[in-house]
Every structure is written in C-alpha cells, then in structure tokens.
C-alpha cells in the first residue's frame, strides 16, 4: 500500500482554502495526488472511482450515502450569510412563479436547497442549467440565476439584477440553524480495504485545516490575489465560513436531507455514517 497513489479531490474555489492550506505548504505526502475541480465534477469523480477522498456537495452525499462515509469535523458551512451562494433575481422569490431560473452547473447542494425552498413555498418556476460565469449575459437570458463559489463573489450581480438573495441567510431565517454546503467523504469500499491509510489522510486533513486557521491572514491574502478583489471583502467572506462539522451542523444537515426527502429528491432518509477506524488504529 505504501507505493499506491491515492487521488484526493480539492475544490477549486477559495472557500476550501483553509482546509487545504497545510497541503499547499508541505503537508502533502508523495503518495497523495490532488485533483482540483468544481464540486459537481468532484461529485462524479468520487462515484466513478477516479478519486478516493474528496469534499463533495452535502446533497450529493445524501443521494449516494450507501457508497460513501463522512470524515468527521470537516465541512464548508455557514451560520447565516455566506456571500458565495446567491440567487440573483429580477423578482422577489415569491414572484418567480412561472419565471425562468438558471442553475450553475457546478453545485448539487445549492440547487437542491433552492428547489426545496420553491417546493415549500409552492412556487412553480422553470428550471434550466447553464453557464453563469458571464454575469451580463446571464442577466439577459433568464429571470433569476443561482450563482455559487468564486463567480458569486467577484461579479457585481446586484448591478444587473434587482435582488441578490443570500441562501445561507435565507436558510438561517427559516431554521435558525447553520447550512452545510459541502462535506468530506471517503469511498466506503476504499475505507474498508485501507482503513489505516484513510485515518492517515483524515489526520492530515485536520492538521492542514489547523494550519489554515493558524495562518488565516495568508489564506485571505491568497484569495484576494486569486480573485483580484479588495482584501476586506475576502476577509469578511472567510469570517462567515466554517470548516468544522459539529453536532449543530449535523442536525442542520439532517433537517436539509429530510426536506429533500419530503420533495422526493431523495427516495429515503440517508443513514449518516462517519468513517470510524478500527480500535487498533485509534
């Protein structure tokens, strides 16, 4: 096993930067290969076996929970406003009946969450999937657009749409709970075959995250350079993000899964299970 190359997904947005800071600064062992991509691509790659460990959309975990195990204390979450998951709209949410809403191709959790809100409010919109990277073009081709990640942060959506609704804030107003957008998982079959290696990767991820928060000023600086934005905005963004997975976030995630089951996006309530190494490895 020592010489086996293991592939680990890495979200290409800046939101996961605190978790990967240590890996980007010397913690990554030679046997671990990083695969950087958007969440929707990482979702598919872990199911097809192209990667063994990865952050993925929380909704996608729920849809594939029998093949995956969660890694504890790792997520991308918010407790209220998040800034990087917005519904840019020419109408208030309740006025989007019959209107066209475009989803980014890059997320499962945010799209499922927005559909859940529409379902609860009995709003029948026309959903379509498209490229939302060009904010001016999007504003000319749809009534509303769900935008996530770096594109939500760096483009002035409020200049081309009447409303910019932060979905993290909306969820908190509805539930008084955090929202979990992404979780870290391992393929269940891989964890069963190589539990010691999975524990090593998990420990490295937690150590990498600790380094990220120890050097959060450098994380902010790197995000500022990548997006070419004002540093105060990027600092405010990271102040709103959480990368842990405490009991309250697990509770919120299960409530989200229940809502997805209510609207038949999920056929069954997911059995939320974490990777738990054998006693001899603990």
Radius of gyration: 19 Å
Give a count of the beta strands, DSSP E runs of length 2 or more: 11
The CATH topology of the largest domain comes to D-Maltodextrin-Binding Protein, domain 2
The CATH class assignment of the largest domain is Alpha Beta
What is the terminal separation in angstroms?
Answer: 19 Å
CATH superfamily of the largest domain: Periplasmic binding protein-like II
Helix content: 40-55%
Structural class comes to: alpha/beta
CATH architecture of the largest domain: 3-Layer(aba) Sandwich
Instruction: Give the SSE string.
Output: EHEHEHEEEHEHEHHEHEHHHHEH
| Fraction in beta strands | 15-25%
Basic shape: globular
**Which strand order does the major sheet show?**
7-6-8-5-9
Number of domains: 2
- Summarize the main sheet: 5 strands, mixed
Helix count from the secondary structure assignment:
13
Taking pLDDT < 50 over at least 5 consecutive residues as the criterion, the unreliable ranges are none
The overall pLDDT, averaged over residues, is 91
